[in-house]
From TrEMBL:
This is GNAT family N-acetyltransferase. Keywords: Transferase. GO terms for molecular function: acyltransferase activity, transferring groups other than amino-acyl groups. It comes from Paenibacillus selenitireducens. PROSITE patterns: GNAT (PS51186).
């Protein structure tokens, strides 16, 4: 995974290896960490190089029936969590800029009617929100009060917006969402807005992170069009999972 920055690789290694390793081979690593948050007491990461990392709290490991020196594989691990009634939420794709594509972005002069938005753009942003469906708003999670917000305009109308917030308080990763109003899709607005806000994030010392569900093909295409590279698939325990 050396094509990505050390910030990204170190962050995910810490999430999955900051505990006692229960099992490890050339493909699968399973660790136990008592410090996991309640909503992440089971996590699984599958990176594009074919490696799979899983981490659980000790209580969840006991529930699933995991113990040291156990012979495991991905198939066995997933079967065990299923048999224990542990449901995963459903994986997200994780996209980041490679170091090479980051350097291209930082040298780029983005054109078009693009602006960074502030609280003074409340009326413009409210009109934008009122023109979007509830489903699109929920999926995109674009908010004017986020850490950074950028928008693309057409004839003085906000037609596409992206916002970012720090992924966690102690990390230099910024998670982004983007939404283009339906009548204005396919015109390149989202790509320009995403690249603009990502360039801004880099200038503030943050690594941009783009997430989307595996079945969101339009969002996956946008990530690639905007210059991101797939890092892997990340899944966490479902809120509906049985304790």
């Amino acid at each position: 995974m050396l094509i990505f920055s050390q910030t990204i690789t170190d962050y995910w290694r810490e999430q999955f290896l900051n505990g006692d390793v229960l099992y490890s081979d050339e493909v699968l690593t399973v660790a136990i960490n008592p410090d996991l948050d309640e909503d992440s007491r089971v996590m699984v990461l599958e990176t594009t190089d074919g490696r799979i990392m899983a981490v659980l709290t000790p209580a969840m490991a006991d529930k699933v029936g995991l113990y040291p020196r156990q012979d495991l594989s991905e198939e066995i691990f997933r079967r065990k969590i299923k048999e224990a009634g542990v449901m995963l939420h459903g994986a997200d794709y994780l996209f980041y800029f490679s170091e090479a594509d980051k350097n291209v972005l930082l040298q780029e002069n983005l054109e078009g009617d693009l602006h960074q938005l502030t609280e003074q753009d409340d009326a413009v942003f409210s009109e934008f929100e009122s023109s979007a469906s509830e489903q699109d708003l929920d999926d995109a999670s674009v908010e004017l009060d986020h850490w950074a917000v950028f928008g693309s305009f057409e004839k003085n109308r906000l037609v596409c917006a992206a916002s970012m917030y720090p992924w966690e308080d102690d990390t230099q990763i910024a998670d982004l969402g983007v939404l283009t109003l339906a009548p204005f899709r396919g015109k390149g607005h989202a790509r320009k807005v995403v690249r603009s806000i990502c360039k801004f994030a880099y200038e503030q010392g943050y690594e941009p992170q783009y997430r989307c569900q595996l079945d969101n093909h339009a969002s996956t295409l946008l990530a690639k069009t905007a210059g991101f590279t797939l890092f892997g698939k990340w899944d966490v325990i479902s809120p509906d999972s049985i304790d």
